[in-house]
Hints:
Elements (H helix, E strand, L loop, with lengths): L10 E2 L2 E5 L13 H6 L11 H12 E4 L13 E5 L2 E7 L5 E9 L3 E2 L7 E10 L8 E11 L2 E11 L2 E5 L8 E10 L4 E9 L4 E9 L8 E7 L2 E2 L3 E2 L1 E2 L1 E2 L2 E10 L2 E4 L6 E6 L5 E5 L7 E5 L9
Parallel strand pairs: 4-22, 8-18
Antiparallel strand pairs: 1-2, 2-3, 5-15, 5-22, 6-12, 6-20, 7-19, 8-9, 8-15, 9-10, 10-11, 12-13, 13-14, 16-17, 20-21, 20-24, 22-23, 23-24
Amino acid sequence: MNNGQLATATGNAHGNLCANPTMLPTTLLTASPQTLMAFGLPLHGTNMPIPAWNSLVAHAIHRLCATSALSHTQPNSSTTESSDDWSGYVVPSANDTITESDGYWNVPCTVYTMGESYHDVAEWVGIGGYPSGNNDLMQVGTDQMVNDGVETNQAFYQTQALKSSRIYEYSYCGDTMYGAVNILWNGHGYTGYLYLEDSTQNWSYSNQVSMSSIGNYGRSADFIVERPLENITYLYYLTDFHPVTFNFIEATYGGTQKWAGDFNTINVYIIDTCNFVLAYAGSLYTYTYTDYWYYQGCSQQQ
């Protein structure tokens, strides 16, 4: 595909593709900048490399649909680690060569007990942030915060350590999300590309950031349910959430794009200060896993 052309597809190795013609035209080669911007898509041209643009727009035009033809292999053996805020899977790299992660997930429904303090849970895909202490992190995701019985749903992105920004669109319990984060060399430096789409609410968001170097972003691809920080000070209670299923998750490592489960992975689970498990990830079957809330824990905000 050249010059930003995107051909209409009927299927690929990921499974059947479900077109949504009411959302976008089937080709955006001749679309005006106004049309692209109306759907929250990046403009094609010199500001964004064609491979990255094709990748993002392809997911906006088509929906991946699970079918009986899709098969799961047995889970790969994974190293297991505990964390005070992450639950899910990480594809680690020792040499800064991970340049992309993407995948689908469902926005979870939450359960809350009146009269307690803030609860929060976030779901996202990203690159960087691993191992612990690595502050280079780029991510897109959704968040459900509950305060005295009132839930606030929002989407967010992050392009640098500990500084998340709200996307002024809303995602609700049961919505299907697609997120992608890419870092590409542009001939002079690196550019990070972020894309988030809610196919249930029919909105999408894109952003890009110039980078002098890849830094430590390339150390991991991440598919995570998180217990967020408040004001970079302490951790919220983890909201009691219904299971979150990540699907069709993949990473690009050393220039090779594969399903996350085809790499060596690290299974991360959340514990509190009393070593109680708060949330954990089920087995990763090639490209899908489910994350579970388990226990509120022994202590309050930490």
